[in-house]
Specification:
Sodium/glucose cotransporter, about 550 residues, about 0% strand, 22 helices, 5 strands, 3-stranded antiparallel β-sheet, mainly alpha, single chain
Length: about 550
């Protein structure tokens, strides 16, 4: 048994024990604990939990690899995912927190006074979260498979068992504090390798500054090899695809139910806004590092691996070839591995980089632990979103409003286990790479929830018929375009990952047109919508004052 295996396994098992211990210690004992962590999470820790919830396997494992392979065009992922937090923090999060519900479907159901809208929103939440979770479980399979040198499918099922346990046991309360620990693990694991690579290649420990020195060198290597220049824009897609993908990810971020619910776990609107500010800081640490990661990894591969004799490749290549995520073949029979003969999956760049850069067994183990933290933290949040949509919005609010708290918690926990197992089965043979699967989830969120929430908060005339039409049309258009684009039918060169631009546009138009053609919401609902826009206390006609410290109206 080699040293790398022992060290990596030890680090991962220690972090697993930490997560399970936190979940057990913070076991949810009431529904408010299970769904919104008792609304008592401090903003700075909520910001960390949002960061962990947000920085999924797609961010940790797939983002740098996507940028490395796509170059300039991969930056749409970074700009879209970070820009979306500005939309969410300023346009939706404080207002949704003020409304004081548990879930996004509950907000939509109560804001529009419609059980039908609530059920459709719950179904949309389940579809979006399920799609997203496939990417996370697939990512956990990549990590566990490489660590134990087993098939990635077996690794996926190990991840399923772990997530099902601590998500079902701790609920949102347990997951929140687990995610704080996971954020600390994943950001340390992400930054250490890129700082060491920066020191190795440039002598500067600040990768965010130093990787600019490689821009010219990589461009020269690209020209020598006759490949598309790394920093040339729109070489891997059209300008319209770049814009569509960026919009899809921004609007999807602002509409993701498992992210929005994190803003329900704080005590006030002010705390919700500060949670968003802290989250941007914590997320920025990783997202500003991803392009540096990509540049350093590409440079090392082009200078240290490409051009080597096939018979003398580094030992790490054999391990990754065994996982099926790396292919090296001497296509021209000259005995030398050319750059064009290396086929590397987006999903292994970050995982393989410590080995590529020869950073040592501890860093390799740390990165594996960080990748697992990223996959598990997001998967846990997604499972809570699925559970709350089914157990709270459908089972309790529609079918069994007299259910006891014990029954509601039992249904919630059972739905987490079932959802995790089903998502794990699909993840055994994922329909795309991690970032692609996650982009589909964002497209679905941008086509359904973003217009519904934006108009629900900022347009008082939007009514139940309008939001139902909008969500159904947006869902249908987004899904249809994804399937058409996958079969080769596209508009303006926009592929499946940019489908949200069509879904969101059609949903907004349907919502507005149908709302205007049907009866306006009641005066009471319109006054509530107007009140949502005022973050501080507001005086009503009868002298009542709304105080920002809780969600009740007080005389």
């Amino acid at each position: 048994m080699d040293t790398q295996f022992i060290v990596s396994t030890s680090i991962i098992l220690l972090t697993f024990a930490l997560y399970i211990g936190i979940a057990v210690y913070n076991k949810a004992k009431a529904t408010s604990d299970f769904y919104v962590a008792g609304r008592g999470v401090p903003p700075v820790f909520n910001g960390m939990a949002i960061g962990a919830d947000w920085m999924s396997a797609a961010s940790f494992i797939g983002l740098a690899g996507t940028v490395m392979i796509l170059g300039y065009d991969g930056l749409a992922y970074i700009m879209g995912w970070t820009g979306g937090y500005l939309l969410l923090t300023f346009l939706l999060a404080p207002q949704l927190r003020k409304y004081g519900r548990y879930t996004v479907p509950e907000f939509i159901g109560d804001r529009y006074n419609s059980h039908t809208a609530r059920v459709i929103a719950a179904i949309c939440t389940i579809i979006i979260s399920f799609t997203y979770s496939i990417g996370q479980l697939s990512g956990s399979g990549v990590v566990i498979g490489r660590l134990f040198e087993i098939d990635a499918k077996v690794g996926t099922m190990i991840g399923v068992v772990l997530i099902a346990f601590y998500a079902a046991f701790g609920g949102m309360k347990g997951i929140t504090w687990t995610q704080v620990a996971q954020y600390i693990v994943l950001i340390i694991a992400y930054l250490i390798p890129v700082i060491f690579m920066s020191l190795q290649i440039t002598g500067n420990p600040a990768p965010w500054i130093s990787y600019g020195e490689l821009v010219g060198k990589i461009g020269e290597l690209d020209r020598e090899l006759g490949v598309s220049e790394y920093f040339a824009p729109f070489t891997n897609g059209t300008k319209w695809q770049f814009i569509a993908l960026m919009f899809t990810l921004m609007a999807g971020t602002a509409g993701l139910p498992h992210v929005i619910v994190r803003f329900y776990t704080v005590s006030t609107m002010k705390a919700a806004r500060w949670s968003g500010a802290w989250a941007l800081l914590f997320i920025g640490l990783l997202y500003l590092s991803a392009p540096a990661y990509a540049a350093f990894s590409r440079f090392i591969l082009m200078t240290k691996v490409a051009g080597s004799k096939i018979s003398n490749l580094p030992s790490w290549t054999t391990s990754w070839v065994d996982t099926g995520k790396l292919q090296v073949a001497d296509a021209n029979g000259d005995g030398i591995l050319q750059w064009k003969e290396i086929i590397i999956s987006n999903d292994i760049v970050v995982m393989a980089t410590p080995e590529i850069a020869n950073l040592g067994v501890f860093v390799i183990g740390l990165v594996a632990a960080g990748a697992m933290a990223a996959a598990l933290s997001t998967a846990g949040g997604l499972m809570i979103a699925i559970s709350s949509s089914f157990a709270h919005d459908i089972y309790y609010r529609v079918f069994k409003p007299d259910a006891t708290e014990r029954n509601r918690l039992a249904v919630a926990r059972l739905s987490i286990v079932v959802a995790t197992v089903l998502a794990g089965l699909v993840a055994l043979n994922p329909p795309g790479v991690i970032t692609q699967i996650v982009a589909w989830a964002f497209a679905l969120a941008s086509g359904t929830f973003f217009p519904a929430l934006l108009l629900g908060v900022w347009w008082k005339r939007s009514n139940a018929q309008g939001v139902i039409a909008g969500m159904l049309v947006g869902l249908a258009v987004t899904l249809t375009y994804i399937f058409l684009a996958r079969s080769g039918v596209t508009l303006f060169g926009i592929i499946d990952t940019g489908a949200g631009v069509f879904g969101a546009t059609s949903a907004a138009i349907a919502n507005i047109v149908v709302s205007l053609l049907t009866k306006a919401p009641s005066q009471k609902i319109q006054e509530e919508v107007m009140d949502l826009r005022y973050p501080e206390q507001m005086t009503f006609k009868d002298g009542d004052v709304w105080v920002d410290e809780d969600v009740e109206f007080k005389a």
